[in-house]
Amino acid sequence: MTDPTTTTPDRRPGGRTARVRAQVLDAVCAELAENGHEGLTMEGVATRAGVHRTTVYRRWRDVGGLLVDVIDAAGEIDWQPPDTGSLRGDLTALNQQIQESLVVQPSLAVALMAASFHSEQAARAQTRLWADRYAQCEILVERAVERGELPAQRTDARSLLIAATAPLYHQLVLLRADPDPHLPERAAETAVLAAAAGAFSVRRRREESM
Question: Is the CATH number of domain 15-74 1.10.1760.20?
Fold first, then answer.
């Protein structure tokens, strides 16, 4: 699950409205990555985008609206989960993409995470986007079950995916530690071993919640 906020979607031809949106969203990404949420202003975005600030205010109204549209645009990216032939390989590739998105400087992914704490609109949009990405990545677990890598009983795909990817965010965002080139594979392997042992079976989680 490459961080859904690190690249902009393919720009579709669509006249002036589409061009203005592309210019503005690119400007938001640049301003946010360089200056953070605190430095993001409607005027700064308009200037960088080369459009009149009245246009920006009329369409997006405020900074929250700009952030929501950037996140929504990320959902338009034509991205597919990795398919390496094994669950361990898929999760490792997924983690490598996440790590790359978090360590690039400046990191738009980290900037948007921070911004979501200041904007309820952005927080809701980001929650929707991540929910969609996790749902999209459930195919990794489905393929693993079909290959016989996971127990026959139903596996809670989202719990497995969270367990596999969480160490990257803990290490790089919470602890702000230097990237470990071995962490993507190590975290993937740990999650696969736990899943193979039934740690994420739907039945087990149902029993634990009773």
Answer: no
Q: Take residue 75 and report the two structure tokens written for it.
A: 């959902």
- Which superfamily is assigned to 87-209 in CATH? Tetracycline Repressor, domain 2 (1.10.357.10)
User: Residue 202 — very low, low, confident or very high, per pLDDT cuts 50/70/90?
Assistant: confident
Residue range(s) in the chain whose domain bears CATH number 1.10.10.60:
15-74
Instruction: Read off the pTM.
Output: 0.84
For the chain, give the number of residues.
Answer: 210
Residue type (1 letter), 16: R
